[in-house]
Amino acid sequence: MRMSGPALRQAVSHQAIHENAWHEVDTALQAAEKVLLLGDGERFSEVAEVFLEVAEARVLVHAQEEEIGLYREWSEHLPASHGFIEELKGEHRQLRRAVLAIEDAMVDGRYPDAVASMREFASALTSHSLHEERILMEIQVEQGGFYR
Amino acid sequence: MISPLRWAFPKSYRRLKELAQAAGIHEFEYRARVMPATDGGLTSVHIERDGSEWVRSVPAVDLEFAGKESTAFFAETVDAMAAVGHATYQEQMHHREV
Question: What is the ipTM of this complex?
């Protein structure tokens, strides 16, 4: 089984990873919103690509690491974790769907739809991060930071 | 006008992404751009990673369907990108050791 690093297991360091990712996503979203208003299609095309790079590099890769590392550890050591792991994986799927929707909108040149999907991604990211941090904190309090 | 390959030719982008992923290279580690070439029907494809760039002119219709010429260029570029990445890693390790 692949083990996750301590940064993913600990609530505070995991929260810092989420905050960094959120900051980059929010910055890219604000840039996209601004350029959309300016009506510069070429520039918007570049900004949308940056948004997806951030979403993929900072969020989807992190989600994948959680699924193959942290969630498997929880599943192994915490028998009651099945329900919330499925919820968290469902939220990851929502993030992946939003990325695909941005891609589809960009290919069709539907820029306002792309921004709407970026907002949906950002909103889903916020609620998922809060949900996961609450679970991490509960596990840390109940388990003292270690699995038994 | 330079455009991301991702929006301009989605099938070709997916082919490049598949080849890169198979070589262990994430999609956010490189940038692929296209620019209409001056001679009719050809599109200039630019792929960049870590300051290195690979460029080839490919017929737009081939890019549209991720055809033979595009796929061959992507495969060669992915091999080269992997070599660049490997060299960068070796260099980092060397500096760390030094």
Answer: 0.72
